[in-house]
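User: Please look over both lines:
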Amino acid sequence: MIKLALSFSLALLLNATYISCATNNAVDSHLSSKDLQRLQKVFADGIASNDLQSIFYSSLNVEPTSDLERTNVCQRLFKVHAASKLKDYEKDYYLVGAARTLKCPEKLPQEILLNIYNIPMPITSTQEIFYRLTAHKYLGVQIDETIFKKLVKNLEGVLMKEDSLTSLGYAFNVASELSPESEFVTERIEDAMVQADEVDGKMLQFEGGLSVTSLIITGAFKISSDFSKPPPVDAQQAYKFANYFLSRRSVQTPKGAHILIEALKSLSSLTPQLAPICIQLIGNGQLQADSPRLAIAIVDLLGKPLKESPLNIFGKVLLRKEGTTLAQKVQFAPKSSDKTTFIADLSPYKPTRGLYAIEIDVNSKYSQKVNFKILGKVKVQQLELGIGESDASSSIKKQIVAYPKTLPEKLAADHTQRVLLKVLLIEEGTTDKTITVHQAFVRFYNKQEDLEVIYVAEQDSSKVYKFDMDVGARAGDFKYKSGLYEMVLIVGDASLSNSFEWHVANLNLDFPHNVKAAIKKQPIRSVLPEIIHQFRAPENRPPRLVSDIFTGLCLTPLVILFIVWHKLGINVSNFTLAPSTIGFHIGFGGILVLFTVFWLKLNMFQTLRLLLPIATFTFLCGNRLLRRLYGYRSAKASNAGTLATS
């Protein structure tokens, strides 16, 4: 029973693995020769620059074209090293690496060599360990075994304190250079890989962009190979990382270009079961109906042939518009002169003009879907051209013109007549299959006047393209310019391979004179009339009597107040000369005066700006006054109670 369960589990595992491999998507692009040429220009500019890092990465990819150029680059290398503000261990690494790659004859200064040989302990970052270790490698100097062991322990200690993505990336690259004792770093590969960010379900990248992603990928692949560990990614992850790196092919710096190429090399170096490949349509995807041969390229990410040439390449052809299947299993055959090109002959399936898609399967491991179209050919079945009276009741004498000839005699039409053209378009190779095109125009051109007028030919219910022009009604389109016009039929469509312009006939058109009053056109560069700004006229004010009555009504409450005070008498017995009393009344009076000034001349913002300090002063004085009055009344009431008790 246990054996049966294990066998069943193993079968499920193998089946799942097969399905996973069968559904691996291939990328749809690669680093093309045009991309490589552009990157070579980036390296050429970098090696001629005054940047130490750019010279180093450029020297890894291009060589000086002459001994004189090599000498100039080497001399400039030492100068920019001295002027560089990078950390010593980093700029020494760039200097040693570039000098070795360029084979500079100059000897390295003793001071720089001592800085490289004397490795300080402990080192606080994996980046410094990498630069110092690789600088020794460039010099061909063997590091002492004691120092080697210290570096391993140092690396382990740094990773315990600093496990950022950048730190892990440099640690992976360092571990491949150290002794087998650094195998512990391989345990951190999974910690780094789980931090990859997925973009749109198609790409994987690490925070930090191209430099960090390339650093981790190249380092992880290197130590996995050195310590015989499984690859750090599966096929689907490799596909998504490849998509990300290819999306960054437009890098403009030598460092970016170098690490991009290195990352794509690392992905291409995977086993055939994991390495992403590119399946790409060759050409513009437009095939002729009489020879429909579909060519595709199957290459690695750098555009090179695969290590193992694919043997079983099949495609399923679909009609994109209808969604039906034209061919189930179309085989692609390799091109004898090119190991990267594979061709499928679709002639046995007789595809007609239209849009198609093909689902390509390579060795039951990779799949790709590409679109293509079959171009048809249009044929003029019949064209009729006639001129008649504008009166619809009169008959029109028509002439048949054969494609691609031009009617030998010149036709004439005046403003009382109309021009009629009918043309039937069919698909070449058939006798009655009419065709609808995207563009069907009738063009009139007057050479003498250099005047061109274009009209659209409409297709009627019988699928015949028809053009009917009333000469008199269309005189304005021709600017009333009579004369000899070429009549050209233009037929075009994205799915046609033989779109054409056909000079059908020559017409002498006679238009009426423009009876409209001639409008004097103002010269383009003449002085324009002066623009005088006019303000809106003020509204009429009400009569003086109405204003006086309104003012009197506003003052009525104040008059009534004074009358009431006179009748009742004013009690000022509680008025004191205390500062708060005087301040409150002055402030209150000031507010009334401010409102009066606001009424006469101030605007709202000016009034608020002045009201704020006056109101604050009045509030403080009023608060103090009310507290004093309340205390006075409380004391008076207390004294009255005491007397009553006595």
Notes: Residues 51 and 80 are 7 Å apart (CA to CA). The radius of gyration is 46 Å. Residues 277-375 form a domain with the Immunoglobulin-like fold (CATH 2.60.40.1930). The chain has four domains: 31-269, 277-375, 377-509, 576-637.
